[in-house]
Amino acid sequence: MAEVHGRDIDRDVVATKILMAETSFVVSIVGVGELGRRLLLSLFFNDAQVKDYFELKIWVCVSDPFDEVGIAKKIVEGVTRKSPDSSQLQVLTQCIIECISGKKFLLVLDDVWTEDRAKWEPLKNALKSCGGMGSKVLVTTRNEKVAKTLDTLENGIHRLGVLSDEACWLLLQQIALCGRSKEDCAQYKDIGMEIVGKCKGLPLAAKTLGSLLRCKNGLEEWENVLRSETWELKEVIEVELFPHLLLSYNELSPSLKRCFSYCAIFPKDTNIKVEEVIRQWMALGYLGSDIGSGGGDMELRGRQYFDNLAMRSLFQDFEKDENDGDQIMSFKLHDIVHDFAHYLRKNGVEAGTKTKTSCQACSPQLVSQVKEYRSLKWKIDLPICVCLGGGLRVLNLEYCGIPPGIEKYIHLRLLKLSYLSSNGSSIIRSCDRLAALPHRRLRKAAALKELNIYDSIQLEQHYGDKEGSPWKSISNINPRIQLRM
């Protein structure tokens, strides 16, 4: 199996618990998120030995709250590669039984929080009744009570501890001094071990500081990091890892700061598409302006910004293009990094003004209280009382009718319509006023019959050079087509 700095013993212990049929049906890795649970889990999940041992492998991100229907759907989808139609738990558990019956499976439930046994019972009964001999459920959680709620026997619990200082140094050194000779690394070890003391045995802290120090030249600059006043800031020292992240954040340009903190709008554990977030950065003006270039330069700049942030260990869980192994297609934010980005937006650190809304789920009442939006994602019909404001740049609607008067949002630059409901208007009229809008994305827009985009200068520049491209008018849109105009 692949090596993990300071986690070789943990890796072997978990492997034994998973690959031995006589151990607990449910195996739980217990420890706080900063300890590297997911890295250990992913290396194990993708290991060739594990692949050969299990007929089926399914990974489900759970988080809080514990949505048993959503989890059941993901299990079925993970096996059949199709999204189930039903939302009834009884129907879904029967689907689980049918699709994994007799097969030896490994089901990963990542980041479980619930202590409500009743929520787990239907899924456990279905899984236990149909899996082949040796099937396992592998859980990661911060709380040992959760492990016991999910019926993990004592021989199935693995408690993940902090890394030793030496293991932290090896991890930090691998990132900060990549490609350096042993002699060079030895020169930095004394100051490096002092910095490692700030990590408190947390792998994410070592990775974050390693990424920061990679951009530093010489012992003096390493010394500046060690003696930084950031370690003593009252606003951040109360939250573990915030000082480490703030040190890295302070090195960013203003544009990069905005791009990073914006990622807090995505819910925790979301698999974020790089192309999607770059388009949103473009729409919000975070990448500058390239009038006349059709946006190509901005897209390239957006990719460079993303690569810069990824290099600093602010993003993780990368999924790469199968045809181009170096091209990252999607990513996630670690929970602590997400909390930090949310802290920045909430406290107005990057903009100097506090943000009243966050990435948390909002009720229609809360949404209606906000006077001005820049970016909004909504999954049901917008309440009539909501006034989006003239400064709206990004609007992402799912399972909604098209809100009336959408043509009034003259600064709208990114409009994404997915699974449009039949409620509300089925036609966008007078869209000629949306001159700033360079991208409209329509996915399964069954209710949409016509889209007029006359006199949109930026649209013409971006798409007008394509011969035969009907960029000015689109009718009778196929509901199965995803269209980027």
Q: How would a textbook summarize the main sheet? A: 5 strands, parallel
Q: Mind telling me the C-alpha Rg?
A: 25 Å
The CATH topology label of the largest domain is Rossmann fold
CATH classification class of the largest domain: Alpha Beta
Organism: Phtheirospermum japonicum
Keywords: ATP-binding, Leucine-rich repeat, Nucleotide-binding, Plant defense, Repeat
Protein name: Putative disease resistance protein rga3
Family: Belongs to the disease resistance NB-LRR family.
How are the SSEs placed, and which strands pair?
Blueprint: H1 8-19, E1 26-30, H2 37-45, H3 48-53, E2 56-63, H4 68-80, H5 89-100, E3 105-112, H6 117-130, E4 136-141, H7 144-149, E5 157-159, H8 165-176, H9 182-196, H10 203-213, H11 219-226, H12 234-237, H13 242-249, H14 254-262, E6 272-273, H15 274-283, H16 296-311, E7 316-320, E8 328-332, H17 335-346, H18 364-369, E9 375-378, E10 394-398, E11 414-418, E12 427-428, E13 439-443, E14 450-452, H19 457-463, E15 473-475, E16 482-484
Parallel strand pairs: 1-4, 1-5, 2-3, 3-4, 9-10, 10-11, 11-13, 12-14
Antiparallel strand pairs: 6-8, 7-8, 13-16, 14-15
Domain Disease resistance protein winged helix: 265-341
Organism: Phtheirospermum japonicum
Keywords: ATP-binding, Leucine-rich repeat, Nucleotide-binding, Plant defense, Repeat
